[in-house]
Amino acid sequence: MKRSELREHIFKMLFSYEFNSDSEMPEQMRLYFEQMDEEEPKEKDMEYIREKALKVILKTEEIDKLVNDHAKGWKTGRMNKVDLSILRLALYEMKWDEEIPESVAINEAVELAKKYSGDDGPSFVNGILAKLAEGRKGQP
After folding, report:
1. Whole-angstrom Cα distance, residue 107 to residue 100?
2. HEC string of the chain?
3. 56 exposed, middle or buried (CB, 10 Å; 0-12, 13-18, 19+)?
4. Going by C-beta distance under 8 Å and a sequence separation of 6 or more, which residues neighbour residue 127?
5. Interhelix angle for 121-136 vs 102-116, to 10°?
6. How far apart are the C-alpha atoms of 18 and 33, rounded to whole Å?
7. Which residues of 17-55 are buried (b: 16+ CB within 10 A; e: fewer)?
């Protein structure tokens, strides 16, 4: 499975997290994998999706604080869940995933927003991520 496809599945997991409790997520993940479009997803792909989604979930509080600090006039509680899930994944990749270049994380987030968000979603996601990227340039 290509990395962009893996990222899309991770986004869907993060989106479902908005509507399920921590205790429900293992079962939700199992059901998700059973219903994946692919004939039979490879175990390594399922493990990558599961692990990365959980890593993002564990950083949600820290990610949301970054978003809230940089999104002028917006707080995570007011954002639509699609955009918020995309932002969380992209910010995780930008800040903690050394395998993903920052520009790729931003570009892929915008592509997800084009596919899953409303008309303003791609520019909203791009604007927030650009501000965060700019704010990180001076940090070690």
Report:
1. 11
2. CCHHHHHHHHHHHHHHHCCCCHHHHHHHHHHHHHCCCCCCCCHHHHHHHHHHHHHHHHCHHHHHHHHHHHCCCCCCCCCCHHHHHHHHHHHHHHHHCCCCCHHHHHHHHHHHHHHHCCCCHHHHHHHHHHHHHHHHCCCC
3. buried
4. none
5. 160
6. 18
7. beeeeeeebeeebeebbeeeeeeebeeebbebbbebbbe
What tokens does 120 get?
A: 């303003």
Give 49-107 pLDDT, tens digit per residue: 999 999 999 999 999 999 998 888 888 888 999 999 999 999 999 999 999 999 999 99
